[in-house]
Amino acid sequence: MRVRAQMSMLFHLDKCIGCHTCSVACKNLWTDRKGAEYMWWNNVETRPGTGYPTGWEDQEHYKGGWWRDDKGKVHLKIQNQPMGLARLFFNPALPQLDDYYDPFTYRYSDLFTSPQGDQQPTARPISMITGDEMEITSGPNWDDDLGGSGTYARNDLSLDGVDPEIRQQMEEIERVVFNYLPRICNHCLNPSCVAACPAAAIYKRAEDGVVLVHEDKCRAWRMCVAACPYKKVYYNWSSGKSEKCILCFPRMETGQAPACAHSCVGRIRYMGVLLYDADRIEAVVHSPDDELLDTQMDAILDPFDPRVIAEAKAAGIGDDWIDSAQRSPAWKFVKEWGLALPLHPEYRTAAMMFYIPPLSPVMSTIENNLARLDIGTDEHDFELFDQLDKARLPLKYLANLFSIGDEEVITKILRKMLAVRLFKRRQSVEGFVDEATLAALEAAGTTPEEAEAIYRLTTLPTMDERFVLPPYHREMSIESLNDPLVHKGQVGVGYLTPPTRGA
Amino acid sequence: MSGNDLLFVVVPYAAFVLLVVVSIARWRLHEFTVSSLSSQLLESKRLFWGSIPFHWGVSLILIGHLLALLIPRSIEIWNAVPLQLFLLEATGMALGLWALFGIVMLITRRVQVRRIAAVTSPMDAAVLGLLLLQIVTGLWIAIGYRWGSFWGTSVFVPYIRSLLTLSPQPELVASLPIILKTHVLAFFAFMALFPFSRLVHIITLPLNYLTRPWQKVVRNAPEPYVYQPSADEFLTKKS
Question: Nearest Cβ partner of B40 from A82, A90, A315?
């Protein structure tokens, strides 16, 4: 056992309202620069939809992630090593700027300098790359709330395997359904961007699992951009360097949650430490599809297990980090309660950001201008509890996103969440919990105590409960590499050498 | 000192010193600027037709030139059979034309595609112009002064070797036609521009990708570290 720590973010999709505050916080902090205008290290997609960059889940096109051959060997989808070198001159899988969008601004000076006339002057849109006037044909969140078009949802690859009849129904205006999917870098255990970088410029930090691009070492071979199945490494066209989400490590090192999580209006995001066994990554990566999710979950270690604690200490993880791992909301949601899943585990990168799948209303049909719920004529006290197949968002769709098509996994999670809801409703509306509700809790594999804990952390958590950030002890790592007094004189605001584009 | 001495002794040494000193300085002081500055994100279709022919064509021809310098005798023996000489020359010619096609595509792309023009610096123009000159003069020599691989080993190789052994003999190339001289001087200019331009990406060729493990995990401190200075050490420590 080799214990390592991972800072993990958890997204409670049931609470996401799609306001994009996270994206804006991130943009303001990190990507409001030349060459980075088009980058959204954090973005929120409307799903079903094609996402950003358009169709990023189409790995036959973009060649992201890993694949497992018939003999059980695992290969990088984009290249083997000699191919990686042979394709330095041209990378066939690289997304194009227009797969994201052409970043634009407006020529506001026109408002002041245009001659007097009968019409109000207009600020014309211009490209932020060329400065030329342009027609805006796409932009960040162009397909927000499906953008009034059936095209985006229709082309969502994760709808594969959903009953064609249901797909047809989803396009009817009364039955349209969508949820939001906020995405950042998944800071994977088996990152394909790291594996694809010919220059070895990308690495994973051992102490907290953050995957970073060493900007000095990056040589713009741009394999990482295509190799990341989540398309979360971006190429800065101005500086000639790849960039990605850094999980706001400068904030975490000073005890603050990442900006996206900190600013989240719906409070859907949680941050915490997960301890994992680095020796098991190999097994995770090589598991067949039907065991992949389980082996990944097994690689996450119980921070209360005395053996894990001993091994963690031997690996240099301090008591305060272990304590932090024990209080981690990520640990609770992912392992203790089993409510959260990684996004697209079939990419075999062992993504370490986790999602709680969303509940959705019951399918309904419009009859005589009245909505009729599609749950039959029987008396249904527990609405969807036994009829999740009638949920508006098809189970198959969620399964394609989070569990490699396994609907059982999703059903189990949604039933548990519904059980918690029923339990709390009985408690607060009727003042007591009846036998039927307790039976529902049991059927969902939970207890009143656990349901109460899930409820509290879902709806009433304080900032400190949502973001359990371990102390980073930067002073120790500084001392181990530098004389602290010398270091003190070298830090501050600004650059030692400005990050200018090379000639 | 004659003009010939200046061009074929001072210039190559100066270019070489620039190449070495500035490359090292740039790498150590401003490594952030060392990049191939790919523009594929902005335009891909025309890059395919430019970048691949240009890079492969030029690299292989450069290797050919290097072989002539390293193993001139073997080249001469190979060329003793007329058919083999013809094969070698034809291959070189094909590669040269391929590279020419590539660089013309790259130059027209830079000029015609607005997004690419937006990321083009004067240095890019200089580099592309110089490479075009190099390829055109090379092809010119191949056509106008046939069988270069045959006579080259006895004309250029002694001169380059005299430079490398620090006993320069510029007179060896003094009487050559102007087009041959241009080709050689353009290479010296290439060496001089190398450290100042995006050409530095050539020395960053990541060969260790073939052998390195897929994953890379970096620790902040080499091992669990507890700093416990003794009282003496703390007091005497200089900042």
Answer: A90
HSE value, Cβ hemisphere, 13 Å, CA-based, for A191: 30
**Residue ranges per domain, chain A?**
358-464
Contact B114 A489 (CB under 8 A): no
Q: What is the pLDDT of residues A112-138, one digit of tens each?
A: 998 988 989 999 999 999 999 999 999
Which B residues, 51 through 90, put their C-beta within 8 Å of a C-beta on chain A?
A: 51-52, 55-56
Asked if B235 has any chain A CB less than 8 Å from its own CB, the reply is no
Domains and CATH numbers, chain B: 3-212 (1.20.950.20)
Tell me the backbone φ, ψ of residue A267, rounded to 5 degrees: 50, 45
pLDDT tens readout for residues A40-56? 999 999 999 999 999 99
Domain A358-464 belongs in CATH node 1.10.443.10: no
Say yes or no to pLDDT of A383 above 80: no
**How does pLDDT run across A448-502, given as a tens digit for each residue?**
999 999 999 999 999 999 999 999 888 777 777 778 888 877 777 766 667 778 7
> A476 vs B44: CB contact, 8 Å cut-off?
no
Three-class DSSP labels, A5-48: EEEEEEEEHHHCCCCCHHHHHHHHHHHCCCCCCCCCCCEEEEEC
CA distance A272 to chain B (A): 20
Average pLDDT over residues A55-70: 94
CB contact under 8 A, B209 and A202: no
